[in-house]
Structures are given as C-alpha cells and as structure tokens.
Amino acid sequence: MSAPVVTPAAAPKTPSPPPPPPRIPLDFLDAPSQRLYAAAVIGALQVYKLTNALQQYWEGGASVTSLLKWQCVDWAWILILPWLRIPWLEVLRSRKIILFSICAFFNGLLFLFIPPSDPSSTTYHNTHLDGHAYLLGQHTVRLSPISTAQINPAHLSFCLAPPHNEVLIPILMNNSIPTSIRYSVSALGSKSPKFNHTLNAKEIAKLEKQWQEQYGHVLAASSSRTHSGGELEDADPYDDEYENDEWDFGKAAASGGKGPAKRMQDVLDAQASAERARHLTQSQHQFYTRPLESTQSIRHISVTRPGVVRLEGMRASNGNVRVAGSDVVVVSCPTVRFEDVEGPEAPKKQECAGAMKEMRIVAEGVAPLRLKWHKEINGKRESRTAEGLEGNPDATNLPLSQNVTVPITVSLSALGRHRYVIDSVEDGVGNSFSPSLAPQEGSTFRTVEVIRKSSVAFRNCDSTHSIDLLKGESIDLAVSLEQGAEGQMKADVIQSIEIQYVPPPNWSGAAPWIQKIKAKNGPTAKEMQIPARQPGTYTILSAQGVECSSDVLNPETCKVVQPPEPSADVELRPLTDQCSGDVGVRASLVLHGTPPFTVFYTEKRGRNRAAEKKRTVQSARDEIILQPDSSGQYTYEFTHIVDDKYRSKIPLTGPGRSITQVVHPRASAEFVRSHQGMGRQALSSCSGNEVKVDVDLRGTPPWALEFQVGDTMQTIKDIVKPRSSVTFKIPEGIDAEGGLFQIDLVSVVDANGCKEALNVHGISVNVQRVLPTVKFYSSDGIHRTTTLQGENAILPLRLTGEGPWKVQYRRAGDPSSVRTENVNSQNSELRVSEKGTYELTEVQDKRCAGSVVPQEGTWDVDWVPKPTVQFSPSAGLLAKNDSIMRPAVCEGIDDFAEVRLTGRAPYQISYFLSGRDGQEERLTFNSVQATARLQLRTAKAGHFAYRLTSVGDASYPPQIEPAAANILRGQYLEQNILSRPTAYFKSPDRLLYCLGDAFEAKSHHGNEGLIILNGLPPFMLRLSIKNFATNEVAQETVNVSGHEWKVALPSYRFTSMGATLVTIDTVTDSSSCSEATVDPSKRSIWADVAETAAIVPFDSKIDYCIGDPVSFQLEGTPPWTVKYSLNRHTQEVQAKHSKFTRIPDSPGRLKILSIAHQQNMCKKVVDDIEVTVHPIPTGSVSSGQSREDIIREGDQATITFVLSGTPPFTFTYQRTELPSAKRSHHALKVLETHTVSGFTSSTYSIYSAQEGTWTITFIADKFCRFPPTPPDGTVASSYK
Prior knowledge:
The protein contains 9 helices and 92 strands. It is mainly β.
C-alpha cells in the first residue's frame, strides 16, 4: 500500500497593498475620459504611420530609417501607457513584449516588405526580382558513409493473430543492401530452446514482396520513402547521431502534421482496406509513414511462433553491416468477445423497462489487460474502462496469455435502444485489438431494445357504472389496451388476458371460472372484447405480453347485471251510456320495468283485420279511454310491452288483457271548421238567397239535426253520411238589405232514438249586397304625373267596401306588367317606376269581389327630360372622327371653348382632360346659362383632349358613370399648345481648351458644351463670347435644325490663357411664340484655356537595369496622359502625381512619345527622351541544376560556374554544410566564401575534396548586378 499523502495547511494570506493611484488625478479627469484620450492618441499615431507608409509607397521605395523611427515611437507609447496607470489600461511586462513584437511585425510589413510601386503604372510594376532566375544551381559533395542495420528501431510491439500467425519485424538499413540476415528466436520461458535462422537475398526479397502484398497501401500513402532494395545512388553522408536516434514517433507525428498520416487514416476508414489494415497499430502507422533519408531502407524478417527475437548479424554487398537494436518479444494477440449467459439473467433482443440483466465479456491476452467498452442509450454514449485485469495473479512474470471474464450488470430503465460495444483490449506488452474494425452482432456488440410495459383496463365500466345484460342475449366487455406505439417509444404487445368470473349471489345459471383469453386484434389494437353471457362480476387478474407481464390498471373489475323483463297488469272495464249502452272501454295499466314504456294493443271491428296501436307511458301507472266513432262489435286486446332496457317486444301474459263488446257511440255533430282556431266561424254571402254549410256527425245513422237560423228553428232528417252539406235560406229582410244572422246546432238524434243536446260553436253569416269599387283620384280631374327618371310616381286610389283590399293593375301595352297590391286603407296609393299609362283591372275586399269605376281607372306617368351638353360649333372645326379641332395657341395664353347646355339651370358639367402623358384627369365646372365657357389648359405645351362625360341640372344630378350621361355629338375637343422656345446648356461642366485651339467640340459624345433647344425647329441662336483676359466680347449667330447642338464656332480661336464665358443671348423658333424664361445659371458656361504640358527626366542617366525605377518630372495640370514605348510596344497611361516612374521588366529601349494634361488635352509630342534598359547578369553552378557527387576520401570534385552578361564580371560563391535531419529547421552554416573580380570569361572552375554545397550568391557585369542595391543604399550580402 502506498503511504497516505499529507497536504500541508495553507498559510494565511496577507492582504495585498492597494494599487497606486493614476498619475493624472481622477477628480481632474475621470477614468473613461483618460482611456478615451489615450486610445485617440494611439489611434492617431497609427493613422499617421499608415499615411507615412503610403507616401513612401507612392514615392517608390522602402526605408530603413522610417522603420527605426516608428519602432522608437511605438516603444515610447508602450512604455508611457503603463507609467500613466490609467484604470483598465495597465500593461504587464509580458504584454509589453507582445505589443512591441506586434508593432515591429507590422512596421516591417509597412516599411520593408511591401515592394515599392508606382500608382501611375498599369503595365510594369514588378520590383521583386526572383533569385532563382539569376543565381542558378548548386553542387553538393558527399563522402561515402558506413553501413548499419537496426531491428525494430521504433520499439514496436508484435503479436501473432490467426489465421496467418505470422509477423514481419522491420529492420532499418542505412547505406547497405543486405545479402543475408541472421537472427534467433527463443521460446518464452527460462529453459526454452533457441532457434537460429538465416535468410539469403532471395528469401529477403520474397519477404519484402509479401509485406508489399499485405501492407502495400501504406507505401502508397508516402511517396518519399524507399522500402525495397536497389542501388544507393547519390547517398547522403552517414549521420553519426543515428546510433542514438530514439525514433520518437509520437513527437514526430505531432510536430510534423504532414499528409501521409492523414492519408493512412483515410485508407483505414475505407471498407475495402479495413480487413488488411486491422493488424497495423497506431505506432506501426507512424513508423511506416515517417519520411526516410535517401540512404535508408527497410527490410523484414518473419516470425511465426511466440518468443524473443534477436538480430545476430548481417552481410551486405559492401561487406559486413553493423547491427543494433534490442530484443523483440512476440506473443499471441489479445482477443475479446461477449460470452452468452445462461438462464433468465441473459438479456433478449427486446426487454421491458425496469429489467436487470447481466452480460459477460471474455478477454484473452498477456496480463495485465486493459479493456474499453461503451454503451449507447438512444444515441447518448457512456464509455467504460477496466484496467489491470489478470486471470491468475500468482502467475510468473513470463508474457503468457490468460483468460479474464468481466461481468457487466445491465440496468434497463430507460426506454429506447441500448447498445453495448467492445471498443478495444490491450495486453501487457502493448498489443491492442479493436473489434470495431470488423463488428459482429453478439460477439463484439449487443443491442437491446427497451420497450414500455403494456397495460390493460376495462373501458366504460367501473364500480359506479355497471353493464346491462338483457335476458337471452350476450355482450362484449371492452378492455382498453395500451400496447405498441407509432411515433413514440415502442411498447410490449399483449398476448393474453386472464379473466375471473364470479356469479351474483343466489344465481344458479353459472359457476365461477378463471379463463385465459388470447388477444387476436394485432399489435396496433386499442381494445379487445371479452364475451359476457351471464350476469356477475368480471375481474382482470393479469395480462401477459410478448416480452413481460403487463400492468393491470383501474378499473380492473366490471359488474354485469341482468335487468328484469317489463310486464303489465291490465284491467279492462266497459264504458256505458243510459241511452246508447256500451260506448267504449276504460283500460287501467300497472307497469313493471324501466320507464318509459310503450304498450301495444289491437283494435278489431267485426270481421275486419285487427289494427295494432300503441301508447307511450312515462310512469308506472296509466289509464286509457277507448271510444270508437262508429257503432259495431269491437275487440280490444293488450299484446306487448317495451321499456327502456328491452327494445324488442315482450309478450304480455295473464287474464283480463282483452275485451269484446258491441259499441253504440253517443250521437254528436259539429260544423266543419274552415281554418284553425277557436270560437264562432264567420261566413260571407255576396249573392244569392241560400247559404251552404258542412257538418260532421258521429253515432248510428241516420241522424236528424235541429238548427236555429236567426230566430227560427229548422229540423233536417234522414242524414246518412258522417260529413254532409246542409243548405239554409237567408231570411227575407236580410236578403234584401244585407246584414248579419246566426246558424247554431241545437240537437242531434241517431237511429236508436237517442237525442243529444249540442253545445258547439255556431256560424255567423254576413250577407253583403253593396260590392266594393276602386278608382284613381285627382283633385283637378287630370290623371297625369311627371317625375324624374328613376324616381317612383305616386298614383292615389279611392276604394269602397270592407278592407283589406286586393287591387290588380297593369301598364298599357305590356301584358307582362300585371301586378297585385294589398292595401288596408280606402285612401291608399300605388307606386310605379316606369313611365306609361296604368290601368286598374280588378278589386276585391275582405268578403266580395268588386269593380273599377268607369272613366276613373287610368293614369298617365311621364318623365322630366334629362339635360344635355355639347361643344359649340364655334369652338373649332369638326374632324372626321367627330372631334372638334381647336386652333393652337402658345404656351401660357388663356383660351376658352363654348359649351351648349339644355335642361334646368344651374348646370354642373364633368369632363375628362388627357394631356401629353396620356393619363386622364376628371374635372368639373358649373354654369347658370345655356351657353358656358370652358377654360382650356394652356399652362404647358402639348396635345390636350377634352371629353364631356356628364351633365347635371336642377332636376338631375350629374351621372357618376360616363356611360349613363346624355352626351350629344360634339363631346370631344382637341387642341395643341405650342411650347415657347428655350435654349440652355445641359451640363455646367467647364470646357477645357488649349492655347490657340479653335472653339470646336472636343468630342461628339458627352454633355460638355451641349445646348438643349425646345420649341418648333429650326432655331436661331445668338451667342456672346467674353474673354476675361482681354475683356473682349464676340457675337455669334447660329442656325440649328435639331433640338441639340454642341458649341462649334470654328471661326473663333482662343488667343490667351484664362477663363472665357459663353452666354446664350436669345433663341427663336419657327412658331410665333415668344421665348420662355430659363434659369440664368443654365444660359452660360465657362471655358478654360490652358498651357501645354511637359516632361523632363529626374537625372541624366541613360543606362538602367531591369527592375530599376526610371523617373520623370511632369509639368502642367494633373491628371497627365503619358505615351511611351518599350521594345516597340506602345503604352498610354494616366498619372495623377508630378513624379512619373516606370519599372521595366525586360531589356530594350524606353522612349517617351507624348504627354498631355487636363484629361488628355494639350498633347505635346516628345522626341528627345530615351534610355536603355540592360538585362540582369546570371550565374549558374552545374549548368543550373542540383548536382550531387559522392567521393571517397582523397578524391576531388570539379565545380564549374557559368556566367552571362556584359564583361567584366564580379561574382561571389560559397560552401555551406550539408543538411541533416536533426537540423532541418536551422539555417545552414557557411563554411567558406570567395569573391572573383574583373573576370572576362564566361566559365570558371574550382576543385574540392571537402563535403559541402557550392552555390553562387552575387554577380555583377558592366551595367547591372544581382542582388541589386536596395533603395536605402545598403548592400545586400547574399541572396537566397
């Protein structure tokens, strides 16, 4: 056991002193203001620095002096800022260094590394000369190294895996091609035998071919390695530090970050390579993808049994090879798999939530083992690791394989998919095995689907709600199922339900039972049916799903009851009359069951077929009175009953359910009612001396009826029909004058002689002898009305009779215009909307039809005429399109057009005005006279059209819709408004001319000097030209045929420099209209007269080199346009600055051809400026190639330098050390340097027996040198 770790108690903290206050007191300037001012000063310095850098950039060169100056400025504010102690702007010592480094980096970019450039250049701007184009080639001399071999240089681990049980152990070769390899394999164990092996060249080549077949894809990932043998040409010198190389592949992979490792990972991810690459560990990947030296190669030896492998010796074509490396231990590869668990503890592919199961993982390998696995629950992953696994802790220290079983308890509480995956196993000697490269269900991973438990419960039945089971029937009890699921977590599927039945007490129809019922509705069913054939209590004891038992939810018990069948106690008693005898039956009912009840009974008369009738009863008792309307033998029998539970008829049993009797109904009579309602009926008689009424009779025919008509009694005998018509004479007095009399039923006598007094409502008869009449009424006797069109005309009526009345009328000449109006007053009226003659045809009051009064039955309706409007013929000439053409007028001159009107003043006229834009505008004007004046639109020039659309007068308002207006011919008027001529300059831009130029347009495009003329061409312009230098004014007159004209006065020449003002004095066109007013600022334009541009060289040099800036001074007004040629290629560029610089990139003659300024004006031809551009001299070693010579000690190598250019030459060459793997990121050390001057030949050779790389670093000829002299005057010592 390790000793406990004792942690010393922490020392008490001393309070830190408060920070010093800011240099500038906060009460004088608060902290935010101090930060703002500091940031503003620092920002201003950086902006000024950028401005300085851009200025030097435009001036064509970098500056070391500016760099040093700004480094000092940045270091100053970095030191001053913390000294001020501004809150939140404190700068620590480490941050000062970081700030200074950042500033130094950006200062270097601004003032050194940005190449100088001429913003005026558009063709030649390359100031950086590529050294590889002028200093070419190198010559490397190496000494022949010694040969070595090292087994397993990366200390890789190896294990034997079936089915091949073979490993290939690498041997790193240096400067050697092996012809034989000797190695030994010692079996594991202290007294194990040792086996020696020797491989010849053929066997070595066979093993390399085998390695290529198994792992050739690894070689494809790195094209810079050599794995097979071959001639070792151009070998690098032997590295003495190779013997101590630890091959730290982990660090090499982390620092290198090259593509081969990533490409190898991509290969492993491919399905086709997964099986071949499953024996290559990460360390082996790193080893085989590590770049090798050109003298290195790899060979392999084969081992097929566990043991300790040692490299004993090796021979090569150049002698013995020095061997190195420690022993290699080869063991059996570790394996891991899931082991099946017997019994109920083993998990199935589907399990219900809440289950606890067990899994086992069996790992085999050299202890101690390290096992990794993970579980995924609905995509959420949890990793597990078990370390130090040993099957036999007392075993020896020999690397022998052991079996270890790891139990895993599985808690299946979360719903969803549970996946258990073995990730890897690693043995005690570093070998690992990852089953994920070849996953296999059950062996390397296992999946369990955790589902919800299903549940069952009775539906629509619980302790408070029972189910009724009718006698002789069976029902199905609904059981609610919660199983399976769509769109949510899956649930178990119910297979069967166990039901217990207990009969009610004292029930002998069935015995208790327990039964298991299978579910047959499928996994998606929401319920199942349990058949119930007997009353009692049904209980769900349990339910079984496919995977586990289901939950039984409430309600789990359902009570089934059997309601009793309905029955009735019937008592039938005859109804008797003293005179008629039996007249009907009284039935008293006592009902048993669940109300409401429906009682069925039959009624049979004589030999007729019995008719079934029914009566609905809401309570347990009822009484029914059965009285037929006619006499005869009747049999009544009560047959069936239905209640609320039993919907089918239940036969009634027992005595007293039927009765047979001869019925003699009591005599009765009443008038047939003509309408619904109570009280005495009313009857009218308009003509004749008789009245007919209908009577309904009941009893035994024939009958005798006694009536009272007015004051007299009348008897009518021998009436045999149950409904008969009876005719009465109207009393004489009433028949002559009209009036009201009554008819009442007094009594009725049937065939049995039984007399019954009647107490029914009688009939009132209204005898009318004066018929109703109708006529039109007019106080003046004139039946005529005039109204506005669209308004209703009122026709007064006069009626006689008793209201209400129905009046029928029509419009003469229109048979379809017959109308009927219901009126209630004798002084009513008719409302009509159409004009014409209206005739009254019929009238009827409340009782009788009447007649129309002669000569008073017609009425005439007329309309008031609508107003009209049209243009007067004096408004213009009538064209063929019915438009009136008004004579044209000038813009701004008032004009009117006369309009004629008919109707009743005042008038309101609406019209549409369409102008030159084509859009119509609705306008209105008023008039009180029959002739009106329409104000025409003359404010703007163009073609205007007027269209009269509507008119309204005192009677008719103006119509909104134009189609409804009453417009006569002459509703259109058109007129042209002539525009006044105008002339103005389209653009105020000043015109540019050179001294002595004629006043002509410089370009036919653009708006400079363009005059816009409006009006009717042709135009005549009068211009004045004032020269402010001489104060002279010239007058010019020009005739223009179009609407645009560019100032072109070839007769006028500019004789002095300065400003000239050109003004438009007047303009006239072919119309008679006067000139319109124009903005005075557009009536004139300025012309500037400038001098001629010039260009002069900055210095007197005439010889330049490629890349040298050739500068010129420009004179005149910017921008300038410079035209030049280089090697007969002409270029024209614009320059905005007075310094014009070209940087040629090819040899030849640079000549200035012309110069112009002020937007390519005042061009001057130049013929005396010309310079010569010379090529850069070049120097090459080994004909510009990279050559490598391997010599033995005592030999010499020849190094040849080739020079090109204009002699004499001066060049410098040097020898540097050879590169090595240990110093790949460091600059090579220069071992020696030589300079040759005044050399006139083109070839120079030297001899050397020393190792190193020879290169040329500097060359100069008669005119040029490379590297060139920097702009700041410093001399470059070398160029790489």
